[in-house]
Amino acid sequence: MPIITVSNQKGGVGKSTIAVHLAMALQAHDKRVLFLDLDPQANASKTLERRTPAAKIASSQLFNEAVEGVDGSDSLTLIQADSAMADIERADPSVLIVFKRNLENLAHHFDYCVIDTPPTLGLRMTAALIVADHVLAPIELEEYSIDGITKMLQTVFGVKEKWNPDLNFLGMLPNRFNPRSLAQKATLANLVQHYSHLLIKARIGIRSSIPEALADGIPVWQLKKTAAREAEREFKAAFAIVYEKMGGIES
């Protein structure tokens, strides 16, 4: 079960939107997907609960007790964020071992796992990076978001060096791009110049159809509106690159 962690140490970059759409895209490829929400804001959980009933266990239990299996639908299973997740940050680091063992126990039930992380460095983000096979980092092309890129990359490659040598950094995915913004265009050009090898050569624009689809618990490509077609094209182009960097979708 390849694990894809969607992570950024800055909030408000559309991380949960990317994570949810990635999970639903893999589901559309007839894959059994486990979605694990570690973000206390639980935005991903709220969206996916409109699509599929949440599992009876919550995310915090994966850190505190042995979990051998999980109930859920055949194609997409949600383990939702819960209020007890806040206590994990004050827990003993040994919970990381419990979390890793539980993900290993669940591996044979699913084809893929997508993890949405909190926007701050701590035990939950560290846990999600330690167990991951791949990490995808959505970014917003704004000054404050770009300022955090170095810190984010240090975290990812620090975990890779210390704990997870096989961690594959898929790249930074520009999100919420405004093609009319000269500042964003300049920022994107700067990223291409300095981080080209770490940048996914695609972008997701700001489109009202995206939050509208999420409010209905569906991916934007299932929204029956002409305005959603461009968003569909952008997501599918971005995910095609992600799949290629993952070595393809497993059969």
The overall number of domains is 1
Largest sheet properties = 6 strands, parallel
Order of helices and strands: EHEHHEHHEHEHHEHHH
CATH superfamily: P-loop containing nucleotide triphosphate hydrolases
Q: What is the strand arrangement across the widest sheet?
A: 3-2-4-1-5-6
Low-confidence stretches: none
Examine the coordinates and then state which fold CATH places here, giving the name of the CATH topology.
Rossmann fold
Give the N-to-C terminal Cα separation: 12 Å
Q: Which class in CATH terms?
A: Alpha Beta
Radius of gyration: 17 Å
Describe this protein's structure.
With 251 residues, the protein is of the alpha/beta class. The protein has a single domain, classed as Rossmann fold (3-Layer(aba) Sandwich). It has helices at 15-28, 43-49, 61-64, 85-88, 95-106, 123-131, 143-147, 149-162, 182-195, 209-215, 228-245; strands at 3-6, 33-37, 76-79, 112-116, 134-140, 168-175. The chain has a six-stranded parallel β-sheet, sandwiched between helices. The longest helix has 18 residues, at 228-245. The N and C termini lie close together (12 Å). This is Chromosome partitioning protein ParA.
Layout: helices, strands, pairs:
Elements: E1 3-6, H1 15-28, E2 33-37, H2 43-49, H3 61-64, E3 76-79, H4 85-88, H5 95-106, E4 112-116, H6 123-131, E5 134-140, H7 143-147, H8 149-162, E6 168-175, H9 182-195, H10 209-215, H11 228-245
Parallel strand pairs: 1-4, 1-5, 2-3, 2-4, 5-6
Helix pairs in contact: 1-2, 5-6
